[in-house]
Specification:
It is a single chain. By secondary structure, the chain is of the alpha+beta class. The protein folds into 2 domains: about 80 residues, no CATH class; about 130 residues, Mannose-Binding Protein A, subunit A (Mannose-Binding Protein A, Chain A, Roll), CATH 3.10.100. Helix content is about 40%, strand content about 15%. The protein has 6 helices and 8 strands. Strands 1, 2, 3, 4, 5, 6, 7 and 8 form an 8-stranded mixed beta sheet that branches. A hairpin with a 2-residue loop joins strand 1 and strand 2. The termini are far apart. The protein binds calcium ion (2 copies). The site of one calcium ion has 8 residues, from strand 7.
């Protein structure tokens, strides 16, 4: 009796598994895939059988996912208790572990550097890749869809004031490798030594005068301790 029960249970499990698999590839599975005795056995499967054999597995998976979510939540709480902010402050935009602030006010390049620094130790943005450049340009396009006339510029943290045509990031002194100047820029027209993104060229790069009052883009690492 016990052996018979065991075999019936095995057959039911087999049917449940086969039905689940075959229903993904062939909706007409019972008619030509299984022999007669298998079809009879499978047709006897009840909803309660599926609940008995499949649901425990699903419940276990849900438990594991929940445990993982709890672990990650705890990690975040620990980080916040340690004084580190893992998301950007209000008004900043998150991208790839960095926060970006697109200033609404305008000031000179030097004053904009100080403004960024006063915002929790940020700096005038450095752009290190085509992907990051595209992110920044897309953010600017969103902000200037209608209300400007192509004349808006945003300072970045690059300059060639030490040596004409040699572009460096002011914070680190490193040479700028990725560039997105749109010809005829950089043209050093009337001594332009500060790097901007210029709306007229769909926010391509431009050299502009450092004493102009323009918008700026501040940047800071997302793990930085804001004070
Ligand atoms: Ca220049
Ligand atoms: Ca220029």
């Amino acid at each position: 009796m016990r052996i018979r029960q065991h075999e019936t249970r095995k057959g039911t499990i087999l049917c449940v598994v086969v039905v689940v698999i075959m229903s993904q590839v062939d909706l007409s599975y019972p008619q030509h895939v299984f022999p007669e005795h298998t079809r009879r056995q499978c047709s006897a499967i009840k909803k309660s059988d599926i609940v008995e054999y499949i649901m425990p597995g699903i419940r276990q998976l849900l438990k594991e996912d929940l445990a993982e979510l709890r672990r990650r939540q705890q990690e975040m709480l620990d980080a916040i208790r340690g004084g580190f902010v893992l998301t950007c402050p209000y008004g900043w935009v998150y991208h790839d572990d960095n926060c970006y602030l697109f200033t609404q006010h305008r000031s000179t390049w030097q004053n904009m550097r100080e403004h960024c620094n006063a915002r929790g130790g940020g700096y005038l943005a450095e752009i290190g890749s085509r992907e990051e450049n595209e992110f920044v340009k897309e953010e600017l396009r969103k902000r200037h869809q209608e209300h400007t006339r192509g004349s808006v510029s945003y300072f970045l943290g690059g300059t060639d004031r030490e040596r004409e045509g040699v572009w460096k990031w002011i914070r680190t002194g490193e040479l700028i490798e990725f560039k997105d100047f749109k010809p005829p820029e950089p043209n050093n027209d009337k001594s332009e030594h500060c790097l901007t993104l210029f709306e007229e060229s769909d926010f391509g790069w431009n050299d502009d005068q450092c004493d102009k009052k323009l918008h700026g883009i501040c940047k800071i690492s997302v793990g930085y301790k804001f004070t």
